[in-house]
Design brief:
By secondary structure, the protein is mainly α. The protein contains 18 helices and no strands. Helix content is about 75%, strand content about 0%. It is globular and about 70 Å long.
Length: about 500
């Protein structure tokens, strides 16, 4: 399937800030082939997809039982939004650490640690008393730390197992499980609550599924050399490893990476707010229409969580497949296909979300239709965004790139949007008469900003399209240079300029 260096942790492609800048010609190393059968690679991809499913179920399982959690711990809308902010905040703070580890040490060991951490924290949180809501917040933060390891490292493993069209298809399948896992998180949370009469059992079932995932990871998933799919084994040049600051500096000058990260941030802001508050918004819309009674105590109706979960799953599958296939076909005639598809889908999402919010008090069916269309268009981008990153970033720092994109996207996106949405809702409610209609309208108005944020995201991807070809060519030039190795001092100087280091001084 791929060839590369013999050791997943071997040092090489990133060391241009050291040996090249010092003027020393790096020694050439003989590449040792690394290969994996096609069947084994697809089996590993299937395991990683299954774990990604569980990963995103953990993200949104609390949202599926949010009303029950609020009633159990007696917390307001603003504090309930802070619950997701703590989860995302811990995730984004730990993502750079896992990115650093994933670029330099065993990715398989790091993934194992992450699964053990999030499953243990999730299970223990189900036994927390209502007298200690702060402890529940803390446990959700620890779950976020565990999931950071997987979200950061797993895509880079797939990037080293597959290339070209195969990579696009596999990434499409992998990212299908973002909306599928999110939707099943709502379904599992609300479904188990209905069956058992206790929302805690939703958190106790997940660790059973995660034990299976851990066994499959240890038995079936390899740890390929970084850059193996492009035949860029890190042992080829034998260069010392670059510093983390050097990798960050390289990524900061990569315009495609920077603008696509800002586009992802806008997407994360909207999906975070929708994912956390949409079930409650739909429930309160039913109350306004006289179809439900207000929920003032446990246990609350979970029908809207189930419906929203199913909608998320269906639109997610269709959207990811459509987006990946459109990108695969369109880039044969337009090299800027990926960011243009992302931009157009986000710009089309904005009016759909706006109409979904505005029409909710008037016609619930139309609100569901436009909300489903908005989710479908958002889902078109997940696999395409990953393909952009893998194509414009060199393999040696893809883990760091994933970590930085996750960190920026979450700290400015879904780490803040649930809390801000709840905070605005609570502030608007405080200035209005105390009625259920006004409570609903406060939440509706707090949602309106999402339609405008997603337009900014579309603009960021349009700017990505302007720089994509240049950054992709530079990444490929670095790959070709490191694949053959510099043969003389002039080649060393050319390679150092390509990789961003200062040119070595000429010897007299």
């Amino acid at each position: 399937m791929s060839t590369g260096g013999p050791d997943p942790g071997s040092e090489g492609l990133g060391g241009h800030y050291g040996a090249l800048a010092s003027g020393q010609q790096p020694p050439l190393a003989v590449p040792v082939p690394w290969s994996l059968s096609r069947g084994r690679a697809y089996m590993a991809a299937a395991v990683l997809c299954y774990i990604n499913l569980l990963n995103y179920m953990n993200w949104f399982i609390i949202a599926g039982v949010l009303l029950d959690v609020q009633n159990f711990f007696k917390i307001s809308d603003s504090n309930a939004g802070l619950l997701q902010t703590v989860f995302i905040g811990c995730l984004l703070l730990s993502a750079p650490v896992f990115g650093y580890l994933g670029d330099r040490h065993s990715r398989k060991a790091t993934l194992t640690f992450g699964i053990l951490l999030w499953s243990g924290a999730g299970l223990s949180s189900s036994f927390i008393s209502s007298q200690y809501p702060w402890l529940f917040f803390l446990s959700r933060g620890i779950v976020g730390i565990g999931t950071a390891s997987y979200s950061t490292i797993a895509p880079t493993v797939l990037g080293d197992l597959f290339t070209s069209d195969q990579r696009t298809r596999v990434l499409a399948i992998f990212y299908i499980f973002i909306p599928v896992g999110s939707g099943l998180g709502y379904v599992l949370g609300s479904g188990v609550t209905q069956l058992t009469g206790n929302w805690h059992w939703a958190l106790r079932i997940m660790p059973c599924l995660e034990v299976v995932a851990l066994v499959l990871l240890l038995c079936l998933v390899p740890d390929p050399p970084r850059g193996a799919s492009e035949k860029q084994g890190e042992a080829i040049l034998g260069l010392p490893r670059s510093s983390w600051c050097g990798d960050v500096k390289y990524l900061a000058t990569n315009s495609s990476f920077v603008w696509s990260t800002l586009g992802v941030t806008a997407m994360a802001f909207v999906t975070g707010a929708l994912g956390f508050w949409a079930p409650k918004f739909l429930f309160e819309a039913r109350v306004v229409h006289g179809l439900k009674l207000p929920c003032l105590q446990e246990m609350c109706s979970s029908q809207d969580s189930l419906i929203f979960g199913v909608v998320t799953v269906v639109t997610g599958i269709i959207g990811v497949v459509l987006g990946a296939e459109a990108a695969r076909r369109y880039k044969k005639v337009n090299p800027r296909a990926e960011p243009l598809i992302c931009a157009s889908s986000l710009l089309a999402t904005a009016p759909c979300l706006y109409l979904a919010f505005v029409l909710a008090p008037t016609t619930l069916l139309a609100s569901y239709v436009f909300l489903a269309l908005g989710e479908l268009l958002l889902s078109c981008n997940w696999a395409v965004i990953a393909d952009i990153l893998l194509s414009v970033v060199v393999p040696r720092c893809r883990g760091t790139a994933e970590a930085l994109q996750i960190t920026v996207g979450h700290i400015l996106g879904d780490a803040s949007s649930p809390y801000l949405t709840g905070l605005i809702s609570s502030a608007l409610r405080a200035r209005r008469p105390d009625s259920y209609l006004q409570r609903f309208l406060s939440l509706q108005h707090s949602f309106m900003g999402c339609a405008f944020v997603i337009v900014l995201g579309g603009g960021c991807f349009l700017l990505t399209a302007l720089h994509l070809e240049r950054d992709r060519d530079q990444a490929q030039a670095q790959a070709q240079a490191t694949d053959t190795g510099p043969s003389n001092s002039k080649d060393v100087e050319r390679l150092s300029l390509l990789l961003g280091a200062e040119a070595p001084p000429e010897k007299p």
